[in-house]
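lol so apparently i was supposed to do this last week
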Amino acid sequence: MSTKKLIATFFLLGTFSFSNAGIIKVVATTMDMKSIAELIGCEKISATSIATGYQNPHFVDPKPSYIINLTNADLFITVGLDLEAGWSPQLLASSRNSKIQKGANGYVDASVGVNLLQVPSSLNRGEGDIHVYGNPHYWLDPLNGKIIARNICNGLEKVSPENKAFFEANLVKFNSTIDAKMKTWSAAIAPFKGAKIIAYHNEWCYFETRFGLHIVDFMEPKPGIPPTPSQLVKIINEVKTNAIKVIISSPYFTTSSSDVVKNQTGVKVLTLANSVGAFDTIKTYYDLFDYNINLLTAALK
Ligand SMILES: [Zn+2]
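anyway here it is w/ zinc ion bound
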């Protein structure tokens, strides 16, 4: 290599590393947290998610490869409660990254300030219940998305105070987009207010409450417990008695037991998106609601 070329390469590499130097490295546990972080942090951040959008967020295999990202991260975002209790604390500890441990500036619990639903009066993991602190699927209410965004914005400002105005401006944009889209989503679902549905796992209560639906029962007798024969009989009776039109599920659950109910009653089985990335077309937090509301309203017609 000539001296000229060597100098050119040196400057190219130099420019490259400088352009990356200010980028805030974010690791989120789920794709929903990653999407909201990207909408607030935009080009100032580089974000990854540990769980994919089509994975059950309660049960993620804590692969050692995830630790590398955590070791280099400036900010860690968790859904919190006991959603990731089975895998994220051990990954976080293994990262040995003091910047992102609980209590540090780079640790964001996105659930702070969320009005939790189904909080049990006592902590009880009886029969394998996996929602012991209240229902952790709160991101499925778009207005909770605004609380998540505020928490993420606070975290970004702590690790990068020089960009505070930039993040705040993006938060304003995020909130106004949610408000505008809420009008469309609410109008689309309004004709189906009070519609009775069955859900596979108890992960739709925030969505149900926000949009005025009525989830009558679950295929799982308790969160995390697969459908039992007696539960199937109960569901078949409920579908018939209440003229229920749909069972909603997520990509990571088998439809075999829902199909039994379908064959007995003619109910439709819908696989909704529980997270950004559940299907290829769901690329942002906004897409999540567009997708679910389109599919659900078509099925309830
Ligand atoms: Zn759950």
